[in-house]
Amino acid sequence: MRPGTGVAASRGGGAAGTSARTVGEERGLTSVAADARYEGDPEDLPRLWHVTLSVSGDEAPLPEVRRALEQLAHDHPFLLTSRYAVDHAEIRYWEEARDLHDAAAVALRLWGEHRQTAGLPPWEIVGLEVIDRQTYHQRISEGYGPAPATPVGVHPY
Questions:
Q1: Which of 10, 107, 116, 117 has the most beta carbons within 10 angstroms of its beta carbon?
Q2: 106-135 pLDDT, tens digit each
Q3: Contact 54, 111 (CB under 8 A)
Q4: 73 with 154: CB under 8 angstroms?
């Protein structure tokens, strides 16, 4: 990963004895005993990623946008904050994923997968930023990014 950018410079193959996943391939879920210790490659451990997803489209009534974003926050409990207007919105949250590629893939599916259940407007994704936890905290300490006092929840711009 290029330091401070949140962008992977390259993607290597899998660990010894495993094969790299192909594009679009889903990873199977496995169960792990509560007292089990991780003995694999440290780069395969999940990490926290700060995601900012921006969407926009045709105007929609503000009360409907707010209700839909509140439902999305209920359906996706890791949602930190949403800001919205009649024709655009921004969603910020933390995602746990193995790498930037996985976190971005989840983020890019979020709006479409919840469009029906939450009643979200038919807006398109127009921006995505995924940064690691260290970069997020570095930006905050340098005075960049959202203020730490930004209230959690759904708020108009």
A1: 107
A2: 999 999 999 999 999 999 999 999 999 999
A3: no
A4: yes
- Strand 79-84 relative to strand 124-132: parallel, antiparallel, unpaired? unpaired
Parallel/antiparallel/unpaired status of strands 88-97 and 79-84: antiparallel
Cα separation, 40 vs 16, in Å, equals 10
Euclidean distance between the first and final Cα of the chain, in Å? 33
Q: Measuring CA to CA, which residue among 49, 54, 51, 52 is closest to residue 127?
A: 54
Q: What angle do CA 133, 71, 127 make, to 5 degrees?
A: 45
Contact of 52 with 90, CB cutoff 8 Å:
yes
